[in-house]
User: Fold this.
Amino acid sequence: MKFNEALTVRGTEQDLRSERGFGLARVEAVLDRHGATELRPFLPADAIARLETATAQAESRAGDTIPDLASWYTVALPAGTETDQLRAELTALPEIEYAEPVPESPPPPPQATPDFSVMQRYFEPAVQNGIGAAITRQDPRLRGDGIKIVDLEYDWNPFHEDLQLDWSIDVGDGIFTRYQGWGDDHGTAVLGQLVAVENGFGVSGGVPDADVYGISPTQAGTPNPAWLPGAALAYLAARGDGQGGSFLQPGDVVLLEQQASQVIPNSDCPTWDNQCFAPLEWIVSVHDAIQVLTAMGVNVVATGGNGYNSTDHPAYTRDGQPWFRPDNHSGSILVGAGSSTDRSRLAFSNHGPRFDLQGWGESIVTTGYCSLYCVSGDHNTRYANDFNGTSGAGPIVTTAVVVIQSYLRATGEPPWTTQQVADLLKSTGQAQGSASPSQHIGPLPDLQAALATLEAELSVATLLPSG
Assistant:
């Protein structure tokens, strides 16, 4: 639940208070009546202090107020509590801005087995329906040096032979713990697309010099952990660098490799029941957190979800208004899944005017799983040639975003905002395929065209002398 931001609620349990001096007795009475066993803020006190500093700087930079993530709390209740009644009582109070049951954690998208395709064609030039990331092999300015990428992910295997990482990349700090119920192949596949080492075997990442990290959306707790992606993103925004600054800096990228539970009624879902997953930012706390991260100068790339439906569906309505309307834009780059051959929307991909860009949603060659190659009994030698979904599209678009920010950094330019990067990639991208023109997922990035346009705007030397 979220307290009214005007109250500036802080603390927990007996220390719960409004920094503005407002009383909270009515809220406490409702929670007591329903037997609440714990009231836990999204963030610990030291993280809130860092977040308030980062938020103040972000508001100054943005020239506008941004959500107060410290106003979000989690309430633990006895089994069998009538949550609808509790929600109604809480939201009737002026002290509470929003309350909903914690959503169930959906599984990562199941992996299908499409037709096999040429290895890593999604990085080939535009004429081959790729994004042109192969040029990063020719110019060190494009490889992500100095840029952080944080993947919101259940679990991953940092020890894969083509990643060569370790658990120091986990920035959940024991507060957000990896969930192992779905395995680690999904996260391993995403990391492989981004930063797999160029070592003469396996695959190569699009931006191999970037610093990659992971954080789980599962918050540790007693007796059971909870799926709280909004809290994880709040923690990420508040996380310090150990030297008094923020861990995330302008130009860094957060990739949301999660989707929300079904919102669309089963009668409107063109596939099996309860599989029309929503974009993650349908969750209000996630939407708030994205606004904060974006205001901090961080680029948020959000996978659009494998929900078979439009974000303009009437089910995506809150308080009588469409959630994905332009004046409620979270600030993220929302990514759909396109065909590997003609950039048409794949049937499972969510779509709608809110979507910005597409990546391949099929035939993706990367680390993890075992459909392409693996050595029996060796977890670190798995490779796939059929990674798919908006999950596979997200790292492709993230690669394009990091390449742009990497080039700006290398040429001494300040990082661009998410909107600036999105506008550049959309204006220079390859148009969506004609097979699904009314089901908008946006163009596929074309890095060669984007960099040429960027150079012209910055009046710098030509990036590549030919080609």
